[in-house]
Amino acid sequence: xxxxxxxxxxxxxxxxxxxxxxxxxxxxxxxxxxxxxxxxxxxxxxxxxxxxxxxxxxxxxxxxxxxxxxxxxxxxxxxxxxxxxxxxxxxxxxxxxxxxxxxxxxxxxxxxxxxxxxxxxxxxxxxxxxxxxxxxxxxxxxxxxxxxxxxxxxxx
Length: 156
Hints:
Blueprint: H1 10-32, H2 38-49, H3 55-62, H4 66-78, E1 82-87, E2 90-98, H5 102-120, H6 126-143, H7 148-155
Antiparallel strand pairs: 1-2
Helix pairs in contact: 1-5, 2-4, 3-4
C-alpha cells in the first residue's frame, strides 16, 4: 500500500509536476515575447489537437470554465487564428477549427516548447522519456470516465 502521508505520493507528485511545468512554459512564452498570452496558446493548442470539437468539450478538456475559453476564443478569432461555426449536428452549439494562420503561431511556439521539454527531461534517456509518457497515458486512461468519442457523443 502506498504511503499517502508523504510529500512524494503519486497524487502530490502529479499535481506538483503539472503546476511546475505550466509555470515554466508560461514564463518561457512571456519571455519569448510571442503575440499571444500563455492561456491563448494553450487554448489554440487544444483546438488544434481536437479540431472540430465543441466549445464545451474543449473547455472541459482544458479544465477551464466555458466563459474563460470563450474569452480566449474571442481573442483568437479576432486574430483569425480560429474559426467558430455551427455544429452540423446541433446548430445551437459551435465547433472550433484552427485557421491556416495558426500554423505560424505553432512554428513560433514550437522551439519554446522544445526548450522547456528538454529542460524538464534533462538527464533522461529517450527510453525513459517514452516510458514516462506511456505510464502517464495509462494513468490518464484510468481516470477517464468514458472514452473521448463517447463524451463528444453525449455532449451532442
